Amino acid sequence: MQLKDQFRFVRQNMKKNKTRVFMTILATAMGCAFLIVLASVGFGLQKSVVKEMTERRVITQIDVHGKEGDDGGSFRPINKKDIQIFEEVKDVKAVTRRKMLQQEGNFSIGNYQEPAQTFVANFPSEVKAGLELSEGRLPKGQDEVVVGYNFPLNLASKDAPDDRYDNKSQLKTEYRYSGKLIGEKLELTVRQLKDGKQEEKTIPLTVVGISKKPTKEWAEDRSVFISDTILTEIENFTGTPKGYLLDANSEVPTDQDIHENSFDEVKIYAKNMEAVQGISDQLKDLKYATYSVVNELKEVNMIFMIAKAGLIFIGTIAILIASIGIYNTMTMAVTERAPDIGIMKAIGANPKTIKRIFLLESSYIGLIGALIGTLVSYGISYAVNFAIPLIIKQAFGKETELNIIFSDIPLILPVICILICYGVTIISGYRPAQRATRVDVLKAMRREV
Prior knowledge:
Layout: H1 3-16, H2 18-56, E1 61-68, E2 75-76, E3 78-79, H3 80-87, E4 92-100, E5 105-109, E6 112-116, E7 118-121, H4 123-129, E8 133-136, E9 144-147, E10 156-157, E11 185-194, E12 197-211, E13 224-226, H5 228-238, E14 262-263, E15 265-270, H6 276-285, E16 288-292, H7 293-336, H8 338-346, H9 351-396, H10 412-437, H11 441-445
Parallel strand pairs: 7-13, 9-12
Antiparallel strand pairs: 1-2, 1-15, 1-16, 3-14, 4-7, 4-15, 5-6, 5-11, 6-10, 8-12, 9-13, 11-12
């Protein structure tokens, strides 16, 4: 008997018991749909977490926090020699380094003011790392500055009341500076404490550029970038490194953490994501303390891998329960088709052929159930992703702040489900198929098994 004849024989026999076969396929489809939908929750949450992590941080970025000292217990800040080492590492695209003014600078223009973090940056490296301007140009003179995109949006009138912000925590339009900023004079006020009294110094600056709008809606860039010369002028006024503001009981700090030759914020940018791990490993060998989102992703992916394996295992139990139905269906099929089996054996059919026919039938039932279950699971996944945010909104009166994917079905998940289902159906049909090969011809002809 050829393979196509075996398939035809299987289909004909399945049509004779449509109800029983249908119920068996339905049970298998439900088991597969349960497995896929259950595991899709793990895949969906992993995708949401990874997406959130990679959106909040540049995937090729490596933060360098310091270098381990010779005593092995303390870390020193990064200096210029370290920067040279970083720039010579293979696959490094850029190394940004910033010094931070160690007091909050107060910036004003006319009757408008805003406190903001103030940095000294190396603009060539910042541009390599991806810094772009929405208006203006990069600084050329010592008194020229670049401000963050959100800086002009938060320049508030000095007379603005306490309720100056709207329900989205944004400065109301009527209190916001509305004039042009490029080319305008901006005054930086810094402070120092001398003989128990606070003194102030005002430094005139010129705004020449505004950075590009952050790609993420939640991100805000209100920084101001001044020159090294301006920072030196502030240091001369305060008498402290990086303008550290003393209080009445403080002494001039000598700790290296705020030393004028060190950097407060150092970031390395790799040429591509694949190079991040290699660069991190090299820096670790050189005893630098680093952090990159890739390191965190490895841990997150490991946790979710264990969770997904557990969910798939639980889902497999549903398919195992469905396999009981397949075993019952195939056992009944062997009993009912005993005369047909007897005739096939009488005309010389090979026992292997008889076994293959029944294994084909059980596989047929399992695969059809798996395919139907897969299609149903995609529909359920879509409905879950659509309905749950609406339910949360109705229940709590607001939308979720995070863009959570509750269910995600990658191609590998249906493939795993179909393979599991196929394996289970083969096992379920194997014993009845073996029984079919042992049917006695004479008894079968008398319809006795």
